[in-house]
Amino acid sequence: MTKIGFIGLGIMGGPMAANLVKAGFDVTGYNRSSVKIARLVEAGGRGADSVADAVRDADVVVTMLPDSPDVEAVVLGEDGVLAHAKPGTLLIDCSTIRPDVSRQIASRARAVDAPVSGGEQGAIEGSLSIMVGGAAEDFAAARPVLEAVGSTVVHVGAAGAGQTVKAANQLIVAGTIELVAESLVFLEAHDVDTGAAIEVLSGGLAGNRILDRKAAAMVRREFTPGFRVELHHKDLGIVQAAAREAGVVLPLGAVVAQLMASLKAQGHGGLDHGALLKLVDQLSGRE
Ligand code: NAD
Prior knowledge:
Residues 3-157 form the 6-phosphogluconate dehydrogenase NADP-binding domain. GO terms for molecular function: 2-hydroxy-3-oxopropionate reductase activity; NAD binding; NADP binding. InterPro entries: 3-OH-isobutyrate_DH-rel_CS, 6-PGluconate_DH-like_C_sf, 6PGD_dom2, 6PGDH_NADP-bd, HIBADH-like_NADP-bd, HIBADH-related, NAD(P)-bd_dom_sf, Tartro_sem_red. Residues 160-279 form the 3-hydroxyisobutyrate dehydrogenase-like NAD-binding domain. By secondary structure, this protein is of the alpha/beta class. It has two domains: 3-159, Rossmann fold (3-Layer(aba) Sandwich); 164-283, N-(1-d-carboxylethyl)-l-norvaline Dehydrogenase, domain 2 (Orthogonal Bundle). The chain is 55% helix and 14% strand. The protein has 15 helices and nine strands. The strands form two sheets. The chain has a six-stranded parallel beta sheet with strand order 3-2-1-4-5-6, sandwiched between helices. The protein has a three-stranded mixed beta sheet with strand order 7-8-9. Helix 1 (13-22) runs parallel beside helix 7. The protein is globular. Residues 7-13, 30-33, 36, 64-66, 70, 73-74, 95-96, 116-117, 119-120, 226-227, 231 line the site of nicotinamide-adenine-dinucleotide.
C-alpha cells in the first residue's frame, strides 16, 4: 500500500486527504491547527505531530499550503520535508505558488507541481482539474495519487509549468467572477428576476461554472469561503509578475487585480472571492 504524508489539511487539503484514504492509500496527515488532523483521523487516516512525523515513512508527500513562503518553509526548511523524507520520495505540491519556487524545489528533489482547480466542491467530490509540471516519469508516478482527487489530470510541461497554467486559470476565474458580479447588479437594478436570468444565461454562450456554482450565493450576498479573497489576491500577483516576465500585457487582468486588492484593503480578505460583487454594489451606490 502506498504511504502518503499529507501536509496542509485546510479547505482543500482536508477533503483531498479524505479522498486518498477512500481510494485505499495509507495517509498520515499534519496541519498547523490540530482540529483538522482530528478530522482526517475520523475519515480513516492517521494523524502526525510534525512534518517530520508525517513524511518519515512516506513513499509520496503531498503538500496543500497557502502560499510560496509556506511551501518553502515546509519543504526546504530546517525541520522540513527534505530533511526528514526518505531519499527518492516523490513530492507532489498541490498548492498554488510562484512557478520559480516550484522550479527551485524540483532542482533539489524528485517533485512535481500539481496545482488544482475546482474549488472546495471539486475537492470534496474528487473532481478537481489538475495541471502538472515536472519530468514525465515523475508525472507517471504521481498520476494514481492525483487521479484519486481529480477527474482531469494533465501533464502540461516541465517543472513550474503547472503553476503557469494555474495562473492563467486564476486570471480567467477572477475576470469571470467580476463580469458575473457586474451582470447581477445590472439585472437587479432593472428589477429582473435574477434566478430566471441565471437559468437562461447558463444555457447560452454566456454559460460558465461561476454562473452555475457561485451566482446564487452572490445574489444572496453570502460570501463564506470557498476561496478566500486574500488567496486570489496572491494569485493575481503571481499572474502580474509572470506576465511582466514574459513581456505580455493583460489589461483586464490588471483591473481585476486592483479590484481584488481593494477588497482585501477594505478588510474583506477572509471572504469568498464572489465578494467582488460587494465592490460593484459599492461603486454603483447600491449597498
Ligand atoms: P487553507 O488556508 O484552508 O488551508 C491551508 C492549510 O495549511 C491550513 O489548514 C493551515 O493551517 C495549514 N498550514 C499553513 N502553514 C502550515 C505549516 N507551516 N505547517 C502545517 N500546516 C500549515 O487554504 P486552501 O483554501 O485549502 O488553499 C490551499 C492552496 O490551494 C492555496 O495555495 C490556494 O491558493 C489553493 N487553492 C484553493 C482553492 C479553494 O477553492 N480554496 C482552489 C484551488 C486552489
